[in-house]
Amino acid sequence: MTEGHVDSELVDVERLCVWLDGLGLEVGLPIEVAPLTSGRSNAMFTVHRGSSRWVLRRPAAVAIERADEGMRREFRILDALNGSNVPHPETVALCEDLGVLGCTFFLMQQVDGVNPAPPLPDPFTAGDQPSVAFAMVDALAALHDFDWRQSSLSDFGKPDGFHERQVERWTSQLASYNGRELPGLDRVTAFLSQNLPVSFEPSLMHGDFHMFNALIAAAPPGKVTAIIDWETATIGDPLLDLIGFCEIWGKATSGPGWPRRSELIARYREQRDLELPSDLSYYEVLYNFRMAVLLEGIYQRSLHDATRPDLVDVGDGAMGFLQRALEVLDQR
């Protein structure tokens, strides 16, 4: 009945089969389950049965706090996007019965595609770099144009006071680490507190949109087939997504042939037919400040985890993001 090898602590294949049978999904057919990825907070497995190809997403072996709630939240977002023009893995089913895998998990359709992170794989060439970059921007614009108010996400998130909460939220999280002092932090938080956007039009935002969280078709022109890893999605200011993408994209595509930051922003503006602020430094500082705090948390936890000495280097990454925020301030 089962094929392949999978960690039984994470996926009990026999119980999974019973659950699938109960849903009427390829009832009684052989199944093949294989690890796909495993991160700090989530683990994924391919599940092939009959003619169906799915991906199972569940909390990691060492689950983070409120992991089951995170699964329900991510499923809700993806489920709301079903039938839209936002490229994403369509949902199949959510399981909240802890008797199946011992946790809440969900099943989604497997999406074909390759990662667009440079260098692009064959058969892409340097001439395809602009089309891939603009395809990423187009996918982000489609997400931000999604009418969340007319979907099942109408009561999702708290867009009111989004920016007013940012400094307190992230400084409180940083303080909870009880770690080292970060030089220049006060300057960054003071700037953010004193330069809040006057207004913005809330959108469903991904929260971590970059080339490592997307799949593109395996051949040119490289249309985005799916945006993945929605665990940080919320209703908020879409420009934070855009600038975060530009910040990461700029670091990964320093070579020739890739569109410049200004071209990516212009493409986004054209796709959404809107005016953008002439000064986007607030978003640049906020994005890098937020990333510095997140990486600092990973670094501080690694100091107490002898099994993950590789994560100690993340501390340098935290300092790098904070330094980038300070550079933006210096350039104003």
How much is the average pLDDT? 93
- The named CATH superfamily of the largest domain: Aminoglycoside phosphotransferase (APH), C-terminal lobe
The helix content is 40-55%
Largest sheet: 6 strands, mixed
The parts where pLDDT drops under 50 for at least 5 residues are: none
The SSE string, one letter per element, is EHEEEHEHEHHHEEEEHHHH
Strand proportion, as a percent range, falls in 5-15%
CATH topology of the largest domain: Aminoglycoside 3'-phosphotransferase, Chain: A, domain 2
**Count, helices:** 10
Number of strands: 10
Dominant shape: globular
- Order of strands across the widest beta sheet? 1-2-3-4-6-5
Distance between the termini: 64 Å
Second CATH tier, the architecture of the largest domain = Alpha-Beta Complex
Domain tally: 2
The radius of gyration is 21 Å
**In terms of structural class, how would the helical and strand content be classed?**
alpha+beta
Could you name the CATH class of the largest domain? Alpha Beta
